[in-house]
Amino acid sequence: MSAIIKREISAYFSSAVGYVIMAIFFTFGGFYFYETSLVSNSANLSYTFSNLFIITIFLVPILTMRLFSEEKKQKTDQALFTSPISLFSVTASKFLSAVLMFLICMSITFFYAIAISFFTVPNWGTILGNFLGLFLLGSALISIGLFLSSITENQIVAAISGFGVGIFILLFETIAKVIPIEFISNIFSSLSFMSHYNNFTMGVINLVDIVFFISVCLIFNFLTLRVFEKKRWA
Known about the structure:
mainly alpha
């Protein structure tokens, strides 16, 4: 697994993709931090992390688009899946490499907390909740992007599909409000990424929210695994 993770991380930085993702995340994160904390003289990072929700939604598809689609396009997926390593290990390695890259992007938010600590005593409980929420959100979206990348050999298609899913996720709460059937409306409300994420930004660490994001990770990693198990035995 470590060899695949190293190869994937290296691939991010041997091309412009890794640097572009970091630059966009750092730029928008810095802008939101400046506007919501420094300008307003506030030690509350909740608004910064709330705004990072949309940035994460649209950055993750770029992060995941090449994970499997590039392997399929270059016909290297057959060698990868006929190697001694298990399909689970391959899928997990791809997932973890993207998560690690996302953590590198997230690292900038740690410096926001340090900057605030020079002026006042920050609420570390709330800040840690924000970190955890952003990490879980990113991991869940990465698992979805990984699945989308596994069903196409075109990176652009994988990215556009990811953007489409991201827009749909953003609309969950709106859909829940306009659907007159209470049962269906409640389903969309319970599946709203934003509502689960917002709890973390307010410093509320709820087991239900943690389980929700972990469940999304498990479901879509399982689906990705099934895609390649089906191909192996086809």
